[in-house]
Structure formats: structure tokens, C-alpha cells
């Protein structure tokens, strides 16, 4: 099971989200669960404006650091933005939308902590 210090892209993503004051950052190791990515990162922003800003900045940083272009989905509404950076997939949510979809539980197959407000 790899962690951020073993994966430069994951480390970059987590640092950028921390710098942008993302809330409740959760990393899920997907190795052996799916072939879509090695890691999933889920985080919240306080508003649609913060979610959109974090997504755009993360996409720019990943590209600037040489990991290639990323795909962004959901940016216009910014309730839930998906950033596909290849080996790392990032979901940025407004808190209400995050608790509704509860991706942590779905992808961690029950071994992730509950999202605040859903317990």
C-alpha cells in the first residue's frame, strides 16, 4: 500500500489541496479495487467559488510540474468537480453534495470513516 511520500503525483495533489485550504481531505488507495487510478482523493470546499478555484489551480499545478494535462468535469456548476490526473483522481465537493454522494463509503467498501454530518 503506497502513500504520498512514495507517489510524487499524490504528494503534489495533497500539498496543493492543503495550500488551498481544502477541508476534510481523504485519500483512498484504489490499488486492487479498480484499474481507473491508483489513488482517489476526496476533499471539500466551503463554496462553489472555492471548489472551482481549487480545481483550476490543481489542474494548472499538475500540468506545470510535468504530470501532463488533466481532465476537468463539473467546473461550470462547481458543486462537484472531478479532476482526472491519470493515476490520481480527485473529487472536490461542496459539503452538502459530498455527504449526499458519500464516495468515501462506496470506494473504501466500508473501511473509510463516515463523512461529517452523515453519521
Automatic annotation (TrEMBL):
Localisation: Cytoplasm
Pfam annotation, one family: RsfS
GO terms, molecular function: ribosomal large subunit binding
InterPro entries: Iojap/RsfS/C7orf30, NT_sf
Lineage top rank: taxon: Bacteria
A GO BP annotation: negative regulation of translation
The entry's keywords: Cytoplasm, Repressor, Translation regulation
Cytoplasm keyword on record: yes
Keyword Transcription regulation in annotation: no
Signal sequence annotation: none
Annotated GO CC locations: cytoplasm
Assigned protein family: Belongs to the Iojap/RsfS family.
Quaternary data: Interacts with ribosomal protein uL14 (rplN).
Name listed for the protein in its UniProt record: Ribosomal silencing factor RsfS
Amino acid at each position: 500500500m503506497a502513500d504520498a511520500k512514495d507517489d510524487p503525483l499524490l504528494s503534489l495533489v495533497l500539498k496543493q489541496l492543503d495550500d488551498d485550504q481544502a477541508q476534510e481531505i481523504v485519500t483512498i488507495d484504489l490499488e486492487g479495487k479498480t484499474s481507473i487510478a491508483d489513488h482517489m482523493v476526496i476533499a471539500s470546499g466551503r463554496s462553489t467559488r472555492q471548489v472551482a478555484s481549487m480545481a483550476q489551480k490543481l489542474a494548472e499545478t499538475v500540468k506545470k510540474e510535468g504530470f501532463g494535462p488533466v481532465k476537468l468535469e463539473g467546473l461550470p456548476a462547481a458543486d462537484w468537480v472531478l479532476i482526472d490526473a491519470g493515476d490520481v483522481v480527485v473529487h472536490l465537493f461542496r459539503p452538502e453534495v459530498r455527504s449526499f454522494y458519500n464516495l468515501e463509503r462506496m470506494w473504501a467498501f466500508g473501511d473509510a470513516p463516515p463523512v461529517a454530518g452523515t453519521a
